[in-house]
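User: I've been trying to design a sequence by hand for this structure and keep getting stuck. Would you show me what you'd pick, starting by listing the structure so we're on the same page?

Assistant: Good idea, let's start from the same input. This is the structure you sent:
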């Protein structure tokens, strides 16, 4: 099993309600399913038999608030959008 060190800021941050901030390196099952769907549809869209439908399916997944929050929370771990 691969172990990834977690940035200290995630262990220290507390929300106004007193809850710990979610760790972007440990996403929920729901978020993992959304990210997995994005990966599969991207792979299919770029395949030889790529379908426009795969791109259309990805649009709402990429716009999903939970996915957008995860992208924001990942910060330096993801490439910068140009």
């Amino acid at each position: 099993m691969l172990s990834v060190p977690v940035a200290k800021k995630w262990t220290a941050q507390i929300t106004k309600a007193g809850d710990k901030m979610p760790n972007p390196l440990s996403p929920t099952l729901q978020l993992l399913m959304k990210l997995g769907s994005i990966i599969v549809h991207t792979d299919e869209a770029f395949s030889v038999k790529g379908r426009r439908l795969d791109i259309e399916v990805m649009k709402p997944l990429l716009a999903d608030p939970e996915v957008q929050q995860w992208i924001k929370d990942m910060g330096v771990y993801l490439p910068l959008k140009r």
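That's my pick for every position. To get oriented when you compare it with your attempt: The chain is about 55% helix and 0% strand. The helical segments are 8-12, 29-45, 52-63, 65-74.
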